[in-house]
Amino acid sequence: MSTATTPGFTAIQDGRVLRITISNPKRKNALTYDGMVSLGDTVRAASANPALRVIVITGDGGDFCTGADLSAADAYAERGITNEMILDGANGMIKAIVEAPIPVIARVKGSAAGIGVAIALAADLTYLSEDAYLLLAFINIGLMPDGGAAAMVAAAAGRPLAAEMALLGERLPARKALEHSLIAGVHTDEELDAKVEAAVAKLAHGPRRALELTKLALNGAALASLDSALAAEKTGQCELLDSADFAEGASAMLQKRKAVFAE
C-alpha cells in the first residue's frame, strides 16, 4: 500500500485500487486550482499504471466537494494564475476522469456542488448517501456551470432537469437524482460503503482491456459532445469571471449575504 498526500487530497494505492479522498475541511472540500491540476495528474498517472483496475473518489468527512475554492482568488492573482488557466485545470481534471481506461467510482456524501457535481457525474458509477445532494449554484454568483456538469446532466437525465439545475441553482436531493437516472444508487451510510466496496471488489479482478473498451463505448454514446461543451463553458465562464455580477456574487457568498446583481 502506498500513500501520496497533495494539498487538497490524498491518494492511496491499495493493490489494484486507487482511493482518492478530497480533503479541505475548512472549505468543505472545495478544490483549489493546484488541487484540480494535481487530481487530474493523479488520475492520468493511474490510467498509465497497468496494475490498477479501479479508482474511487470521495470526500473527507461529511461532504464530497463543494466546488472551486473562491477564497483563493487573491492568491491566484499574486501568482499570475489566470481564469483561463483555472478553467483549463478544471476541464483537464474532468477529462482525465472521463478518459481513464479503468472505471471510476464516486462515493458521495453531503454536498456535491459546482465542480464537485462534475467530478461525481464524470465517474462511471456514482453512489450517493441519503443525505447527499447535487447543486449547480453558479447562477447564484453570476456564473454558468463548468467542468461539463450541465452537459453531463443533460446527457443522463435530459435538458429539462439540466435547465432547472443550472438556471435556478437549487439543490437536487439524492432521491430525485436517482429518480432521473442521474446516478447509480442512493444508500444509507452503512449501505453506501458496502455498495462501493462490492463494486470495487468486482472491478479490481476484472479484465482491464474489456473494462477500457466498455467504458469507451459507453462514453462515446453518452458524452460525444463533452469536448465542445467544455470549450463553450471556458469561453463563457472566462467572460463571466471578469463581470461585475460575479464580483458581487462572490463577495456576497463569502460574506454570507444575498447578492444584488446589476439591473
From TrEMBL:
<dbReference type="InterPro" id="IPR001753">
    <property type="entry name" value="Enoyl-CoA_hydra/iso"/>
</dbReference>
<dbReference type="Pfam" id="PF00378">
    <property type="entry name" value="ECH_1"/>
</dbReference>
<dbReference type="GO" id="GO:0003824">
    <property type="term" value="F:catalytic activity"/>
</dbReference>
<dbReference type="InterPro" id="IPR029045">
    <property type="entry name" value="ClpP/crotonase-like_dom_sf"/>
</dbReference>
<comment type="similarity">
    <text>Belongs to the enoyl-CoA hydratase/isomerase family.</text>
</comment>
<protein>
    <submittedName>
        <fullName>Enoyl-CoA hydratase</fullName>
    </submittedName>
</protein>
<dbReference type="InterPro" id="IPR014748">
    <property type="entry name" value="Enoyl-CoA_hydra_C"/>
</dbReference>
